[in-house]
Specification:
Helix content: 55-70%
Structural class: mainly alpha
Number of strands: 3
Length: 240
Amino acid sequence: MASKKHSKIVRALRFCLKLILILFVVANLYLVLCKWVMPPITITQAAAFIQGYGLKRNYVSTDEIAASVKLAAIASEDQLFTDHSGFDWKAIDKSLNAPKKKHRPQGSAASTISQQTAKNVFLWQGSGIGRYIRKLPEFYFTYMIELVWGKKRIMEVYLNVIEMGPGIFGIDAAAHQYFHKTALKISRAEAAQLIACLPNPKHFTVRPMSRRVSWRYPQIMQQMNNLEGDEDVQALLNGK
């Protein structure tokens, strides 16, 4: 009897290990494919559709996105994007040792654009225990997209998959929704306003403009001015 029970446990463990291996291989093949192909759908997009928000998106290439949008994203979300290898270790250490705030919005300066992209494309949003379960695969996928995709592709995918309002995903869909323009035609101020809705676009609305966005976007524009002269930033903005 004990032998049969042991045998069942061994078979179950073998099945789990095989399943994990298969999922690992499929995930890495998908990661490589996404170097050239936009994700057909993400978990966050699927969740928004199921929740009744709909799914508004229009994937565009990096050449169809205004340089000011990329600059605004770097200025607001990850000023060391062109310098780090996926992780801002100083910011992570500061975040871990900072006093906790009860009403702090989701998202953190310690989360780089690369980490956000990995989370958006391959994983899920949310806090609580799911956030801690997500951390290990998030680190893995962040490392891999830095290695396989490179900065230009990471920025391109990031700006196409981020949520920018209820059921609105990507910079082009947001530009059409809020300004009736393409992502290539929006102004510098409009780019800053769109990025200012992060990390909580359902609450920090662009139109009508929430107090958070009206307060935040001039700060982003100032940081854009400060970063614009950086050689590495300019290279990324010029598609290199």
